[in-house]
Write a structure and sequence with these properties.
The protein is an alpha/beta fold. The chain is about 35% helix and about 15% strand. The protein contains ten helices and 14 strands. α1 links the parallel β2 and β3. The protein binds nicotinamide-adenine-dinucleotide and uridine-5'-diphosphate. Uridine-5'-diphosphate binds next to α5 and β9.
Length: about 350
């Protein structure tokens, strides 16, 4: 395990939080939020899909440290720990299709290690689950009582089942060991620090528009998604962690769109003169997705504040500000599957 930065000192009154997947998209935004709230943050990541540049602005802070570590291996954190947020996992379909076994391991072995650590430290743990546990849903919109429709042996099964196992083992630790656990079911979330080439649709379409390429809609584009801006997502997660609610909660923006309409929205936003081209729909791509957020409203008093037009404008400005080299860069990661 490699630690970066100068030796840090926790002030005894400070709450200490471990964030796994901290160099990724959501993890890095969570680091920012917890630092802002006055926590001591231990950021842990093996950098398989993340990037240190997402958190390097925090390295000089006294209340921040980074541990380069794979959470599927035994995790040692000296001293007290108040909270754990487990966000380590490949999250884009391109990533988890390239590294299926690592995806299963981080959801299963990684989660087991983190639950063990939480038990040892008497810490509260929040785990990042996903709308993918609903699979290709037959109930619409999806509420937390829906059990889902997942193809266990299909290509997406490695992610979906890892996350379903993660929820099961988390509830088992809650029931058997009395561990304080929280489960957030995250629906498609977008914002700065997403990798332009990770294949997820928001950076994919904006990147294509900025590079002057046609926008690739998979299938006929009639499948739906509902996109949540990152600041809203982080607020929901923060409130859930501090709540006393142990059952899963959906956090997402219910404003639904078809992918074809979404491509048209991006063409309008960016002013590109490129057109839409159609590619085959990936296997088991869910046909509809929209969170029912009644529970989040009732239990957390949470609902999204940033509408899609506003959020996309912010993200477009962010991607526009990247260097031409970064914009043109094709996926450079050479994943090992061992
Ligand atoms: P991301 O790929 O940007 O971040 C994941 C981070 O986890 C990366 O920094 C990666 O290097 C790290 N990681 C992966 N395996 C690891 C391991 N074994 N040990 C240590 N670190 C490891 O993805 P993201 O969008 O930020 O997703 C974060 C979490 O949120 C994931 O658990 C994902 O399933 C969940 N989630 C995200 C979304 C979304 O829309 N962004 C939706 C549903 C669920
Ligand atoms: N998609 C698309 N073109 C792309 C990338 C994605 O049409 O270049 C579609 C994809 O098939 C899915 C939706 O956009 O229906 C959202 O894909 P994403 O990978 O962002 O997340 P998912 O919700 O499928 O996990």
């Amino acid at each position: 395990m490699l630690s970066l930065g100068k030796k840090k000192h926790t002030k005894s009154h400070m709450k200490k939080v471990l964030i796994t997947g901290a160099a990724g998209f959501l993890g890095s935004h969570l680091c920012d939020r917890f630092i802002k709230e006055g926590y001591y943050v231990i950021a842990m990541d093996n950098l398989i899909t993340g990037d240190l540049k997402n958190i390097e602005h925090l390295f000089s802070l006294e209340q921040f440290e980074f541990q380069h570590h794979d959470v599927t291996k035994f995790i040692h954190v000296p001293g007290k720990l108040d909270y754990i947020l487990h966000f380590a996992s490949p999250a884009s379909p391109i990533d988890y299709l390239k590294i299926p076994i690592k995806t299963l391991k981080v959801g299963a072995l990684g989660t087991h290690n983190l639950l063990g650590l939480a038990k040892e430290k008497k810490a509260r743990i929040l785990i990042a689950s996903t709308s993918e546990i609903y699979g290709d849903p037959l109930v619409h919109p999806q509420n937390e009582d829906y059990y889902g429709n997942v193809n266990t042996i299909g290509p997406r099964g490695v992610y979906d089942e890892a996350k379903r196992f993660q929820e099961s083992i988390t509830m088992a630790y809650h029931r058997i060991h009395g561990l304080e656990t929280r489960i957030v079911r995250i629906f498609n979330t977008y914002g700065s620090r997403m990798r332009l080439n990770d294949g997820r649709v928001v950076p994919a379409f904006i990147g294509q528009a900025l590079r002057g390429e046609d926008l690739t809609v998979f299938g006929d584009g009639s499948q739906t998604r509902s996109f949540c801006y990152v600041d809203d997502q982080v607020e929901g997660i923060y409130r859930l962690l501090l709540s006393d609610y142990a059952e899963p909660i959906n956090i997402g923006n219910p404003h639904e769109t078809t992918i074809k309409e979404f491509a048209e929205e991006i063409i309008k936003l960016t002013g590109t003169d490129q057109k839409i081209i159609y590619k085959p729909l990936p296997q088991d791509d869910p046909m509809q997705r929209q969170p029912d957020i009644t529970r989040a409203k009732e239990i957390l008093g949470w609902e999204p504040k940033v509408d899609r037009a506003e959020g996309l404008k912010i993200v477009y400005e962010y991607f526009k500000s990247l260097s031409p080299e970064e914009l043109q860069k094709k996926e450079h990661r050479n994943f090992s599957n061992r």
